[in-house]
Design goal:
By secondary structure, the chain is an all-alpha fold. The protein has helices at 3-17, 25-50, 69-89, 92-115.
Length: 123
């Protein structure tokens, strides 16, 4: 994700965040879970880049089959920041569902990546 897109998204959400419902301890726990899984997926995706010669390729359509480390880093950082901003902007009745759905999506990705022997790689 281009860095400018992340900045623009953040700026667009600033007025909305002020009207969002109060952030709860549950929101924090879910966001921390999401971010932990995002970092694991990030490291696994970096491992794909390092193991392309072994036949590994990325399945994320935004990143493409053979992203660079810089592209992976920019995408994952943008996804993490975007998630925080969106969760903060959503009203409570939508925030919890958004967090649970995105956590589930990452659990599926991380478990799949682990099943094909991808490691968390930040070298």
């Amino acid at each position: 994700m281009p860095k400018i897109l992340v900045v623009v998204l953040g700026l667009l959400l600033i007025p909305i965040i002020g009207d969002a419902d109060e952030w709860t301890k549950g929101d924090t726990a879910r966001e921390a879970t999401y971010l932990t899984l995002r970092v694991i997926d990030w490291g696994q995706t970096r491992n794909i880049v390092h193991r392309e010669a072994e036949g590994y390729s990325e399945t994320n359509k935004i990143l493409g089959k053979h992203p660079t480390i810089n592209e992976v880093d920019a995408y994952m950082a943008g996804a993490a920041l975007g998630h925080i901003l969106i969760a903060a902007a959503l009203p409570r009745k939508w925030r919890e569902g958004f967090q649970y759905v995105t956590i589930l999506e990452l659990v599926i990705a991380v478990v799949h990546n682990n099943s094909i022997s991808l490691k968390v790689d930040f070298e």
